[in-house]
Amino acid sequence: MFLSESCAVLARHPALKDFASSVTDFLDMHLPEPVTEEAARPPWLDLRKRAAQAGLTGFDLPRAKTGPAHECGVAGDRATRTVPPHLERVAQGLAMFLAGRRDCDAREIFSSGHGAMAVRYGRPLVARTVHDRIVGCGELAGVASSEPHSGSDLRGLRTVAVDQGDHLLLSGTKGLVSRVEEATGFVVFCKVVGPEQAAGQDADGAWLREVPLSALWLPTATAGVLTETTVPLGLRGWSLGHLHFDNARVGKELLLGRPGDGRRIFDSHFSGWRLMMAMVCLGAATAAIEETMARARRRSVGRTSLANVPSVVSRLGTAAAEVQAATAWCFSLLERIERDGEDVDVAACSAAKALATDVSYRAVDIGLQLHGSEGYTRRTPMEKRLRDIRGLRIADGPNDTLYGVLAHSLLTDSRPAVPLVAQRQA
User: Is the backbone of residue 179 left (phi > 0), alpha (psi -120 to 50) or beta?
Assistant: First the structure.
């Protein structure tokens, strides 16, 4: 099987072999074949709850952040014991890669997801409550950052939380947001301002660009939170839409970190999360290459096997090389995050996500083409993979922007001889 880079990770970190087996066994039991659009939609949220019962939702959190078993399930039990300290992010990337081999929508089954921000940066009561719901009960956390008028421009966000002394009043619109119907709560990125600021400024929100970003945990059931759904091109396993905040009352205890800590929280979390989305796509691309190779061996043109047609071989080889290179880079960055902690290379992680989703899209596109007309039907997983990966080339920052982050970092870095890609340490 075409799994060389994931096998290389397990060779470097043999302590993760039991964990990988647990994830694979879970997928084999509940999602044995890649998903096609023609088949019935898997019960994704139910699968996440089953994963929680199997201890596969809290392994990415540091051991100090895990708690006692919750009545809904097992909070960081079996799987956590098989993930050694300082390998949590690598384990999460491995789980995402294996999930992507079955379907891109399987990305939400494992790990704490966006709930990790509330657990890592929330006050003790918030962290414990979110941990119980997300890890113990297998519920989902969402994130609300981008806005219709500004996309992923964090400085341009206009959602405001007006400080009323003992509480905040949240107003604004977020979109497009994944999990709008399934999430038990959202990490909301906003600008905390005083009543005088909110009342005395222009309506276009240009003044807000100078207000530092903040983050808070917002339970979905909060009064004044309205949801609006839409139908996306791909990634249909989870709802997508807008969140509207109409003076939603939020206790100050729900702030994550201090007011103004939002950018630090965003960069720390999304550097890792972008790599997770990269790993999902790379898993899907790996499965697509394997399926196409098997088809090339079975099919022929006249008396010549497709596997012996030079153009077919060349295209498959190119796809395999690109996918392997991107997978190696992403795992290398995850290992660096484990080693360096909060000192995350935001630029490299951004570009790696862009590269991984681009090469994955090309690999699946080649696979669909080499499946002929059948590849263009809903009977194979190819067309669903193509639509799903296309969405992940936009999510969490469009790829052109993410490449630009790396270029800007390289152009403005005054340090001499900064390596573009650091060598992996033994």
Answer: left
- The three-state secondary structure class of 417 is coil
- ∠ Cα 9 14 15 (to 5°): 115
pLDDT given for residue 152 in this prediction = 77
Cis peptide before 176 (omega within 30 of 0): yes
Tell if the pTM clears 0.90, that is, is over it.
yes
Between the CA of residue 304 and those of 291, 310, 311, 326, 367, what are the distances in Å?
19, 11, 13, 32, 19
Number of CB atoms found within 10 A of residue 307's CB? 16
Mean pLDDT of 394-416: 87
Give which of 243, 274, 264 is closest to 121, Cα–Cα: 264
Give the contacts of 407 (CB within 8 A, at least 6 positions apart): none
pLDDT given for residue 149 in this prediction: 86
> What is each CA distance from 81 to 66, 88, 297, 405, in whole angstroms?
11, 11, 42, 37
- The dihedrals phi and psi of 215, each to the nearest 5 degrees, come to -135, 145
Q: Which residues pair with 171 in a beta bridge?
A: 160
**For residue range 190-238, what is the model confidence (pLDDT) as tens digits?**
999 999 888 866 767 788 999 999 999 999 999 999 999 999 999 999 9
**3-class SS string, 169-204:** EEEEEEEEEECCCCEEEEEEEEEEECHHHHHHCCCC
Q: How far apart are CA 258 and CA 270, in angstroms?
A: 18
